[in-house]
């Protein structure tokens, strides 16, 4: 599971399309002096800490959501998360509703649909399979998008590594994992790839985080009937409401804020490499909160997927540097 800042950064680092420029906030920041004249690397180290904290928040939020599902259902938990996140973001951002074209609204609605689909499919997945493997399978969506966008031969190596990881996870046929859960995770990955594209397009059409707030509201409205149908009055239980709100804060509001601050200090490429560690963070969260221990084979499979994701990102970074014109005095 990722956040809007992460999607924008991955989009910038994977060259999704010719009309998908890197967001301004993802550009490397200038030298930022700190007390005592310490070099900027200390600021970068702090930013890396923020990114890792955001990843921990997202994945532990996912683990909390998985623990809540037996009481509220997967669709109910998604509804609570999206509704709480929408209320918080709308209150903070206060997006204006006038002055946009039909194309602008169509973009933000599709963004909301992809967000709803990504969350719904992912939560259905972690209701059936452990968190670590679910995130590893979901990461394949952005990875495939990167490979297809790059069209470089070396990316076939990263694709092969990822497929090797999937084969290990499957045990030759996903005998150790619920096949329906696997399909849900792969579907979430496909929606994540679409989410990356529309996150960038929405960011170009709406100022600041206005598009995000509106898209989350769209996703919440889409999921509300599904959550009510599955969970009914359980959604009004104070304990479930409180836990659902905590999931929203951990999985959406807090990581988005941390990543937004970090992107002011880190290049998008560094950010995207750090995002590749999410399957490992998810596996740790699953072990600590849900008692989901990984076998040696599953750990190796997740390591292969992480290596493939990092390799694809670094390949794109090298490609971007090779195409960049020489700077005066360099």
Written description of the protein model:
- This protein is mainly alpha-helical.
- Helix content is 75%, strand content 0%.
- It contains 13 helices and no strands.
- It has helices at 4-14, 41-72, 74-93, 102-126, 131-138, 140-150, 154-170, 179-205, 210-231, 238-262, 268-275, 278-290, 296-323.
- α4 (102-126) crosses α9 (210-231) and α11 runs antiparallel to α13 (296-323).
- The longest helix has 32 residues, at 41-72.
- It is globular and about 45 Å long.
- It starts with a helix and ends in a 7-residue tail after the last helix.
- 53% of the residues are buried.
- Mean pLDDT is 77; it is low at 12-39 and 326-330.
Descriptive keywords:
about 325 residues; globular; mainly alpha
Number of helix segments? 13
User: What portion of the residues fall into strands of 2 or more residues?
Assistant: under 5%
Q: SS-based structural class?
A: mainly alpha
Helical content stands at over 70%
Short description:
The protein is mainly alpha-helical and 330 residues long.
Topology, please?
Blueprint: H1 4-14, H2 41-72, H3 74-93, H4 102-126, H5 131-138, H6 140-150, H7 154-170, H8 179-205, H9 210-231, H10 238-262, H11 268-275, H12 278-290, H13 296-323
